[in-house]
Design a protein that fits this description.
Oligomer: single chain
Number of domains: 2
Order of helices and strands: HEEEEEEEHHH
CATH class of the largest domain: Mainly Beta
Radius of gyration: 21 Å
Helix content: 25-40%
CATH topology of the largest domain: PH-domain like
CATH superfamily of the largest domain: Pleckstrin-homology domain (PH domain)/Phosphotyrosine-binding domain (PTB)
Structural class: alpha+beta
Strand order of the largest sheet: 4-3-2-1-7-6-5
Largest sheet: 7 strands, antiparallel
CATH architecture of the largest domain: Roll
Amino acid sequence: MLSLSSTISTVSSTQIASPLPQGIRVQGWMYWARNEDGKDDASALRYTKVYAVLRNEFLLLYRNDQRPSQDVRAQPLVHIAVASSWRGVDGVLHVEDPYGEEMELHLYEREDYETSRVWGDALEQASELTHAHFSHFDVKVEELSRGSVYRGTLHDFRLERESTIRRSVTHMKKFKTWSSLRKFIPARISSRIKHSRSSTPR
């Protein structure tokens, strides 16, 4: 079974024959800024520490405790094909996938201007490779197969997060008072303990 990493390497190296730069690889720690509350103010941002790996046109983000190594082929939290990118201030990088989904990344060292330049240049080259792929095969984003690595997983990741939040909010609305919620929690814990004991092999 091929891992996502090996699949991406194969696609990048064999499908596009052009004078565009190949062998792009930049990696390092970053913070992924996400707005999960639907608000526009900065206070709604949530920061997740990730290990970012750029391999040719593909950007992969790993959880901080799942950094890939020579011995471990960890699955990324999300991956995208870089369609466009631009640099903000204070080490902020903005990246878009072919669907127009934007990702905001903050360098671990915000004042490391050399690292910011390296990442910015590499992301621009990555976007050229992505556009070359769509141009070479004359395919539109909407026509990509479900299994295409160029679809990425950012859109599905956000849909899943939004669905989880909605379920949580709906569940909380069932409790009209704080006292009813306090009564529910011990009962829930007790129920789980009983289930755990009954299912434990003897």
